[in-house]
Amino acid sequence: MSGDDVYEELQSLVPDETGKSTFVGFGKEHNWIGVSGFWQLEYFRKFLLHHNIDVMHNEKNVSEALLNTCLDIPDKTKDNIKARLDIARYCDRSKLHVTKNSRGVWKKPKANYCVEKDDLITVLKWFKEVKFSDGYAANLSKAVNLAQKRFIGLKSHDHHIIIERLIAVALRGFIPEKEWKDIAELSHFYRQLCAKEIEPKRMRELEKEIPVLLCKLEKMFPPGFFNVMQHLMVHLPYEARVGGPVAYRWMYVFERAMHHLRLKVRNKARVEGSIVEACIVQEIRNCVSLYFSDHVRTIWKKNPRYNIGGTRVHNDECTLDVFQYEGNLRGRGTAVDLTQQELNAARLYILTNCSSVDRFREAFTEEKYKENPNLTGVGLDKLMTEEFVEWFKIACKSDPDSDEDLWNLANGCSSRVYSYNSYDVNGFRFRSELYEKNCRRLKTVNIGVCLSSFTSNGEQLDYYGVIEDIIKLSFTVGKKLEMVLFRCRWFDPTKGMRSDAKLGLVEINSCSRLKIFEPFAMAHQATQAYYLKYASPKRYLRDWRVVYKIQPRNSLRNLDENDTSNADDFFQEDGQQGSFSVDIDNFVDEFTVSRNQSDDVLDPAKIEMIENQNNDENDEELPEEELEDSSDEEEEEIEEEEGQEQRDGAEDDDDRIEHDSEYDDDDY
Question: What is the pTM of this model?
Fold first, then answer.
């Protein structure tokens, strides 16, 4: 409906003078319970978006229902006795009906989407041990209660991380693959929706796919799982396409602002006055701080989260591009001697990544092809590894265009380097694996690293690894230059990596290794990543890790306004390939046999609920003719049992039963 259509419908509403509802015809002709005052504005009906669903609370409610249901947490799960009774009444899933065994005990079969009792502790321990990079998420281990086998005190942002990053990794291997894929698609949907930068074309794809995903979830979960929050997901892609990224529209920003306003209250008897007075003082303070010196830290010049303190690495007067990045080393430097192979690999890596050396590399390649026209690419790489470092040193001496910095680079660095615990650069904090193993009380993990390169075909290839050591090299032939390198353990980027574009998952085999010897990476080129192992101990998942890239905080990709070549390739979810797509052929079969495991229903209130519904169903199934032709003997028995009933009351009961049976026939 357009804004004009909605406005006309609102104008046609008639107030209900009886007081039963707000407007006449509520529940039959319409569902309006009130009219917003915004419709009094003449331009409001022309808006493309008349509402703004809060994605924060939508994500939180969906995540909470999904987590509690799949883990089958008592008193929290949506798959309770009432839900099973609804399945028996409305759904054709006989294998999930509550049944009574030969001993007279009611049994609730375990659904495929629920984790078994023996695996629940395994999943909770996995949540308690999971770690993220510094500043990425809260410490989830505080919210896991192993004694009560449940989560306590999860916040909205915790559910934001759980549904987008953890739920698919935690449940894989514990539930069947079809059910797991549906949950993984839901997780990928929210990751695409909550991206910092969105593409309208991809949002249109989400609009088409999300109704299909909801249908798949409805075939898997009981009717009680779905409320208004689950169905509101249909509108979220359209709102993102029209209103922009959700990061500027969800409630995190406003709740944070309300938090700052609450801190301004000093006199609880005069709340508004306290806030106004504090805001006036804040405005004066902000204005005056503009006139302070540059070295004074104010609200406009805050201390950054990283890059403060420690050993500063900077090369102010150097003209080479690889020495233009600054960072801070932390910890006490320990002297380490590199082997000749390691030193040659470090120098070669720096040279091949310096733009000023590109012309020398081209000359070296041409020279080797002239010497051997049949030289292959593998052979050229081998010659590059063995000869280029010394060849460049000789060529740089005879080159008249080489400056002091290039000559300093050609002479190389000392084999004596210094090892540090951590390094802050580009908004990231990296730490070495050895340091984190010695500091067992750390609640974050900052050893994951990713480097992106391009193959000969122009395709992007990501190298994932773990930082084993952080070293600082010094070039001292001319003016002193410093370079920080990461010594990494790289995983195989081809055979040791697999990705699923539809689910948005990239997996790394932790046992795979890069075959060639290239252990080093320049710190400023690295992107931080973290690895999640699967909670399931099954063999086909044991060695695999799900990897996620991390963007530095308060940063967006720099886009050139005049560059339209990549206008359709906006960043959506860094590190994920493909777009959101629902597998239509992967619908869960409603008639799939449930697990052999079942739970005993021992609560008297629940048993009474089950028996009452069964009795009501038996009464509804009695034929109309049998009820009408009931004998006088049965009526007399009813009178004797009740003691105070009369024959007139029994006839009224017969009329009521006839009326109910007619209603049921019309309903079905």
Answer: 0.82
